[in-house]
Amino acid sequence: MRTLYVRIIVVTMAIMIASAIIAFFASNIYYQNYLKPKNDAKITHISKNIVDIYKSNNKQDISTYLEGMTDLGYKFYLVDDSGNGQVYGDPFRIKNLDPISVEKVLQGEVYHGVENYPWKPFVTGFFDNELKNTIGVPLDVNGKNYALFVRPNTSQQFGEMRFFLAALLTLALIFSFLLVLISTSYIVKPIKRLTEATKKIAAGNYHMKLNVNRKDEIGRLARDFSKMSDSLEQTETKRQEFVSNVSHEIQSPLTSIQGFTELVRDEEMTDVERHHYLTIIEKESKRVSLLSRQLLTLSMLDHDESGNNAFPVSIDDQIKDVVSTTEWQWREKDLIIDLNLHAGKITGSTDLIQQIWMNLVTNAIRYTDNGGTISITTEEDKDGIHAYIEDTGIGMSEKDVMQIFDRFYKVDKARTRSEASTGLGLAIVKKIIEIHNGTIEVESEIGKGSTFHVFLPKK
Ligand code: ADP
């Protein structure tokens, strides 16, 4: 039984055979308990009629009479008072009638061999052609006592019917076997296809179309499987993109560090030039360091979503901290910081939430030209705290707004190159907000500025 196909067929056939055996057994019990007494009563009634009819045709020879009666579908065993017996009609398979029963009938009793026929699980008493399985009635022939044993001649009574039933059963079996073969292949085919598809996925080939148009469990399985392979494909594409982005982001500062280190070796270089190149080297190495820190943060957020989330966090205090930490940056650009903060607390991870404000405020500073304004407002309602970080900076197009939370996405690659940006800041912000069951929305217009609206629920 190496294939599902063979297994289903074998199991179905076994079930069919077992059902036939159980059905035979059950109908035998039915015959034994319900039909057997009725059958006995019916044959007794017929036997008595046969005797009555004989009596009313008194002159007729008993042998001729019984021979004639055999045509009606009965067989007889006639015994005289000396124990001499004669069979009329088809012979009995076993002549196992005991002499006491014969004697009793000769003395005028009725013998109920059909009703008293013993129960055998796999032999239907109804068809068992034994002399014991008969009805015995007394018969008076010209003043002499006889015992007449009667039973239906089943092969005569059910002759054609038997062939009809046998043909019906055999054909039913053949057709059910053929239909099982066909229906099993219908069931197994999509599973085979799914197995092939699984092998392809295991080999890294995600491009597949499973054409299973069924609405049952297998159809659902195939559809879910297709969805799974699509999402695996997306994950794989994202993974490859991620790896290539990381490599690129690491490679470019390293290349410039190498280049400038070569230059610094030149002994004829002036101190001013050397200082300039060393500053670049320092900036680039800070960039690699920032990148690796951000990647670690993202990986930590990806793997441990729960975080250390159970501390009261004062949002307004955190924002004030961030504004003072970044003071030299916004002062350098002559930015106006307009704070409109209301005291409010939520429960969460202090460090992670601090990171949200740090990333959003440094972005606002970075992408706002000199002399601009950054307004930070917080509001509290019954569900949580809303924070709005608004700048009058360069703004973004709608298309960019849709992608800024993707890892490594940068709107203006040339500008961000000099700004030591990685394209990971907002991805981290989004992830932290998700962990705290909050939301972030952006409104932005090119040339006018952007507003980041963060909502963090209290619980
Ligand atoms: P980065 O390290 O490049 O700032 P982020 O993930 O923080 O990475 O931001 C992604 C991109 O979104 C940035 O490169 C920038 O183009 C854009 N962006 C983010 N904040 C602002 C903002 N306040 N104004 C305009 N553009 C912004």
Structure summarized in a few sentences:
By secondary structure, the protein is of the alpha+beta class. It is built from 13 helices and twelve strands.
Write the layout of secondary structure elements.
Elements (H helix, E strand, L loop, with lengths): L3 H53 L5 H9 L3 E7 L4 E4 L10 H8 L4 E2 L22 E7 L2 E9 L1 H4 L1 H44 L14 H48 L6 H33 L7 E4 H11 L1 H6 L3 E5 L4 E4 L1 H17 L6 E8 L3 E8 L6 H6 L9 H6 L6 H11 L3 E7 L3 E9 L2
Parallel strand pairs: 7-9
Antiparallel strand pairs: 1-2, 1-5, 3-4, 4-5, 6-8, 9-10, 10-12, 11-12
Helix pairs in contact: 1-5, 5-6, 6-7, 7-13, 8-10, 10-13
This protein binds adenosine-5'-diphosphate.
Level-1 CATH class name of the largest domain: Alpha Beta
Structural class: alpha+beta
What's the average pLDDT? 89
Helix content: 55-70%
What does this molecule look like?
With 459 residues, this protein is an alpha+beta fold. It has three domains: 4-159, Beta-Lactamase, CATH 3.30.450; 206-303, Helix Hairpins (Orthogonal Bundle); 305-457, Heat Shock Protein 90 (2-Layer Sandwich), CATH 3.30.565.10. The protein contains 13 helices and twelve strands. The strands form three sheets. Strands 2-1-5-4-3 form a five-stranded antiparallel sheet, sandwiched between helices. Strands 7-9-10-12-11 form a five-stranded mixed sheet, covered by helices on one side. The protein has a two-stranded antiparallel ribbon with strand order 6-8. Helix 6 (217-264) runs antiparallel to helix 7, helix 8 (315-325) crosses helix 10 and helix 10 runs antiparallel to helix 13 (425-435). The chain starts with a helix and ends with a strand. The mean pLDDT is 89. The protein binds adenosine-5'-diphosphate. Adenosine-5'-diphosphate is lined by residues 359, 363-364, 367, 391, 393-396, 404, 409-412, 416, 421-427, 450.
